[in-house]
Write a structure and sequence with these properties.
With about 300 residues, the chain is of the alpha+beta class. It contains four helices and 16 strands. The chain has two domains: about 180 residues, no CATH class; about 100 residues. The strands form four sheets. Strands 2, 3, 4, 5, 6, 7 and 8 form a seven-stranded mixed β-sheet that branches. It has a four-stranded mixed β-sheet with strand order 1-14-13-9, with no helix packed on it. A three-stranded antiparallel β-sheet has the order 10-12-11, with no helix packed on it.
Length: about 300
């Protein structure tokens, strides 16, 4: 089953979602926005490149020193049981632990400097400009004032020999889109394009109690916030994982599509999709292995009986 939001990373204009676009900003406006983004990124790089590089170096040094400290501590513990702890070993352990603490303090100070810089007058001014530009784009696309942004899972793919291959190490990208309902249709907007989904095209909605991986976190609050605690959003080696997700089945022009939405977007499902779900998920119901991707075929739990 095809993803409703599918992006061809090799040629965006040939992306699957393009057939659902009903409006978009002009090419001239798009170029104007791109130029503004380049200008902003240039300032960020000029002002913060050094501090961000130092931030990365300090982070890895802290991790390395912490691992070495743990190994030495285990050795000391074993030697203690044998009543043979060389003084030199204790001194080395103390030096490494002390160095790790100092690095941690420097790391914290550097992070504060980055945050202070980002809150400075120039960055604040550009941030306000970005907000104004975004609002102007929403007006062009006639997105109602006050429309909220929600996370939507988007598939990024390569098309090779007519085969759809997942382009990510996670199952999905996580996009923050404006979503609203109007006249028996649901609209999605990224400020560049407007996508329309007719309600009559929605054939089924389910809450799937299974883990799924995704690329990034878009919310102001961290995943550990009490609001998101029931969904067990945790980092992985390549992104994040959530313990449940909504699955919206769509049929258009005799073709079947699937739209997946993070389980923590309950407000979106209730207010826009009119889908009510009293009990979100019980932890003991969730499977240990997240949804995996294999080319354009999905290997999921037997709970997804419709995926055959």
């Amino acid at each position: 089953m095809k993803d409703y939001f599918e992006i061809n990373v090799d040629d965006v204009d040939k992306s699957g979602y393009k057939k659902f676009v009903v409006d978009s900003i002009s090419d001239e406006k798009r170029k104007e926005i791109e130029e503004h983004d380049k200008k902003f990124q240039k300032i960020v790089n000029e002002r913060l490149a050094g501090k961000k590089k130092l931030d990365s170096i300090l982070y890895y040094l802290i991790m390395i020193f912490a691992i070495v400290s743990l190994i030495l501590a285990l050795i000391v513990f074993q030697r203690t049981e044998q009543d043979e702890v060389p003084v030199a070993l204790l001194i080395i352990l103390a030096i490494i632990l002390g160095s790790d603490i100092v690095l941690g303090i420097i790391y914290s100070i550097n992070r504060k400097k980055i945050r202070k810089e980002m809150k400075g007058e120039e960055f604040s001014k550009m941030s306000e400009e970005n907000k104004d530009i975004e609002q102007s784009l929403l007006k062009i696309l006639k997105v109602p004032e006050g429309t909220q942004k929600y996370d939507i899972f988007v598939r990024s793919v390569h098309i090779k020999n007519n085969q759809v291959i997942n382009a990510l190490k996670t199952s999905y990208n996580n996009y923050s889109l404006y979503v609203y309902k109007k006249d028996d249709a649901i609209y999605f907007c990224d400020t560049y394009e407007l996508i329309k989904l007719k309600e009559k095209e929605i054939k089924d909605i389910k809450l799937i109690n299974d883990k799924i991986t995704f690329s990034s976190w878009n919310k102001k609050e961290p995943p550990a916030d009490s609001k998101y605690k029931p969904y067990k959003v945790k980092p992985t080696t390549s992104g994040l994982v959530v313990n449940c997700f909504y699955e919206v089945k769509i049929e258009r022009n005799n073709e079947d599509y699937i739209l997946r939405i993070p389980g923590y977007e309950k407000e979106l499902m209730e207010n826009v999709f009119s889908f009510k779900q009293e009990d979100i998920v019980q932890i003991d119901q969730v499977k240990e292995n997240p949804v995996q991707e294999n080319g354009n075929e999905e290997v999921e739990s037997s709970k997804n009986e419709d995926q055959k």
